[in-house]
Amino acid sequence: MGETGAAKSAEIDYNEIPSNVRRRPYYIIAPGLLILIGILIPFVVAIFLSLTNYSFRLPTWRFIWFRNWTDAFKDPSFYHAVWVTLRYAFYATLTQLVLGVAVALLLRKDTFYSRVLKVLFTFPLMVAPAIAVLIWQLMTSNSVGVLEKLLNFFGVVNFPWASSHGTAMFTAVLIDTWVNTPFILLLVLAGIQSLPKSPFEAAQVDGASAWFIFRTLTFPMLKPFIYIGLLFRLMAALQEFGIIFALSKGGPGDTLMNISLTGYITSYQFGRVGKALPYLLVLWALCYVVAGVLVKRQRKLAKLAQGY
Amino acid sequence: MHTQMEWKETSVRKSQALSAVASLARNLGLTLYALFALFPLVWMVICSLKTDAEMYNTVFRFTPTLSNYNAVLLGTDYFNAFFQNLIVAGGAVVLTIVAGVPAAYALARYDFKKKEDLAFQILSFKFAPEILVILPIFTIFQKIGLYDTYFGLIWVYQLITMPLVIWVVRGYFEEISVEIEQAAQLDGYKWFDVFFKILVPLIKPGLVASALLAFIFAWNSFTFPLVLSGFKIQTMTITSLRYIASDTVHYGQVAVAALVAVSPEILACLFIQKHLVRGLSFGAVKG
Question: Does the CB of A128 have a partner CB in chain B at under 8 Å?
Answer without folding.
Answer: yes
